[in-house]
Amino acid sequence: MNLCQAKRILVLEDEQELNDSIDLVMTMAGYSVSVALNSNTAFRMISGCYKVGNPFDLLITDIRLPGLSGIELIDKVMKEGITLPFIAISAFGDRDTLADLEQRHCFGFLNKPFTPNQLMDLTEKFFIKKPVFTKKAG
Questions:
Q1: CB 17 within 8 A of CB 28
Q2: Does residue 134 form part of some domain?
Q3: 27 assigned to some structural domain
Q4: Of 118, 115, 134, which Cα lies nearest the Cα of 126?
Q5: How far is the C-alpha of 51 from the C-alpha of 22, rounded, in Å?
Q6: Tens of pLDDT, residues 36-86
Q7: Is residue 115, in this structure, part of any structural domain at all?
């Protein structure tokens, strides 16, 4: 069975060249890929697809973005009651950022630059493990 069959991934990366590269690698691997260059567009895509019952299976997001950061986007998505697992990518993986990602149940983190194989390995691990996210009792 092809693990990526019908798996929908949204890629949020403000660097067009990297966005295109990730899109190409994931599409060639058989994933259904959508791309966004900014958080506002990504949020509209996430929210719209969720509302029509066709949510994304995974978000691959840069952390440092103009406007809303990747972490702020995750917070906004969660505030809307949408559960969307994510993998974070960044050239700035300091301790505080990694702690913020861990609090938000980030599945994995890749430091830029990373290889296509590193991204594919992490993505495939996500779909094999298929974590279940639950809200904390408040």
A1: no
A2: no
A3: yes
A4: 118
A5: 26
A6: 999 999 999 999 999 999 999 999 999 999 999 999 999 999 999 999 999
A7: yes
